[in-house]
Amino acid sequence: MKQFRPGKVIQTVKGTPLTIVKYLTEGGQGYIYDIEHEGKHRILKWYKPEKVNKPDKFYQNLNDNARRGSPSDSFLWPITATERTDGSFGYVMELRQDGYHEFTEFLTDCKRIHFNTFKANVEACIRIVSAFQILHHHGYCYQDMNDGNFFINPSSGDVLICDNDNVAPNNKEAFIIGTPRYMAPELVVPAILGPDEEGNERKTKPSTSTDYWSLSVVLFMILCMGHPLEGERWLVPLLTPQNERYLYGSGATFVYDPSDGSNRPNPKVHANVIAFWKPLPPYMKEAFHRAFSKDAIRNPGKRLREIDWLKVLVRFQAEIRRCHNCGGEVFMINAKDTPCDECGKLQRVERKLRFRDYAVTAFKGVRVYRCMLESCNAENALTRVGTIVANPSRPGLYFLNNTDMTLEGRTAKGTVKQIPPNSVVPIKPGITVSAYSGSFTIE
Ligand SMILES: [Zn+2]
Predict the structure, then answer these.
(1) How far lies 14's CA from each of 10, 18, 19, 414, in Å?
(2) Which residues of the chain have pLDDT under 70?
């Protein structure tokens, strides 16, 4: 297609015209332009007409999404569609802020683009799970999750999700099947689900369950910098469509499947995965074992949901601390004294917070979330209960109440103390802090 020239004006559905400033790049589905719209620099994605499946319905869905508005700030959501003109159409979205990189760059150019800390890796995972929880809660499914959809800030772990034009109400309309490496196995090879009640092959389409699969793939890739199904079996001279159907569909096998070692990572080709997997805490490994079990591969109902991921990820985040000697990161699993991998210095646990299922070391910056205290749904999981802080003018560590409720602290002797919002209680052994229907005890 002939590209638009700078200065061209296109009408939007919202009624506010946009002006092309310059052409930026080309993607699989369309062209990207820098534009001026409503007095701001924004982005226009303009579709290649031959790349749009069911254009009338797609256009309708795009307009519906723009009208409903973004479910969360993490999404670069369509602001408005353009009018249909010049044989196609497009949509307007906000410009991405500086400091973010496409996740693909983390995977392909890891010497240049990498997370500054492992804590930022985990933060990115939490943000992605949280964004998808919100999307699913609004009744959408994402459909096309892949490493080109996420822009991540390598210092903070902040995430922006783009390509939201394929987002559609769950189980309603499928415009795209997905990107092969990220697609649920039943979208690659429907036959793996077995025949339906009448003996026919099932029809599969993107849904929340297929999003759950893709979400687990993305989380594994962020934490291990490699693909969960790409082990020895992936080492074929040529990756033909037939090989792909086997690797990501009928023969899908997790590289660390505890009962099937036939697809382990290759030390030469998958060195990243081997290096990152080894130090993961046992509960993270177990979560991946479940997410990619043979059962979860063939049974979409067995996949890990957002709440399952949030529970392990917030724990993991709380267990990563800085070495007091060299500043490297140490995984203090279950609040045990742990030597630093980098300098060998033993990190001693002085105080810990004992939750229902586990304990975490008390140090500055540890966040307590609602899902650490009690069983709750994914919507409430990331409600911040408090943070461990240090007061520069007073020695010691304190628990800061981040809620808007007065929490209750109880000493070992049974004295009850009120902890109003934004106030602190010292990290002293024997104190139990109650919030919602749960509590934790300082040891
Ligand atoms: Zn160290």
Answers:
(1) 12, 10, 14, 62
(2) 1-2, 171-179
9-94 domain in CATH 3.30.200.20? yes
Centre of ligand 1 from the C-alpha of residue 326, in Å:
4
Q: What is the 415 CA–ligand 1 centroid distance (Å)?
A: 39
**Alpha carbon of 348 to ligand 1 centroid (Å):** 12
> In angstroms, rounded to a whole number, what is the distance separating the alpha carbons of residues 328 and 342?
7
Class level of CATH domain 328-442: mainly beta
**Contact present, 66 and 79 (Cβ < 8 Å):** yes
Separation of alpha carbons 236 and 192, rounded Å: 22
> What is residue 1's predicted lDDT score, i.e. its pLDDT?
60
Residues 287 and 307 sit within 8 Å (Cβ to Cβ): no
pLDDT of residue 169: 76
pLDDT at 406: 97
What is the Å distance from ligand 1's center to 118 Cα? 15
Task: Compute the distance from residue 338 Cα to the ligand 1 centre, in Å.
Answer: 10
- Measured in Å, residue 320 CA sits from the centre of ligand 1 at 13
Q: How many Cα atoms are found within 13 Å in the side-chain-facing hemisphere of 28?
A: 9
Protein residues within 5 Å, CB atom, of ion ligand 1: 323, 325-326, 328, 340, 342-343, 345
Using one digit for the tens of pLDDT, what is the confidence trace for 175-223? Answer: 555 567 888 999 888 888 888 788 887 778 888 888 999 999 999 999 9
Cα 312 to ligand 1 centroid, rounded to whole Å: 25
Same fold, 9-94 and 101-304: no
Residue 330 CA, ligand 1 centroid: distance in Å:
8
pLDDT for the residue 179: 67
Q: Hey, what CATH topology would domain 101-304 get?
A: Transferase(Phosphotransferase); domain 1 (1.10.510)
**Residue from 355, 352, 328, 348 nearest 340 by CA:** 328
Burial class (CB in 10 A: 0-12, 13-18, 19+), 236: exposed
| DSSP one-letter string for 253-270 | --TT-TT--TTPPPTTT-
CA of 324 to the centre of ligand 1 (A): 7
User: What are the structural domain ranges in the chain?
Assistant: 9-94, 101-304, 328-442
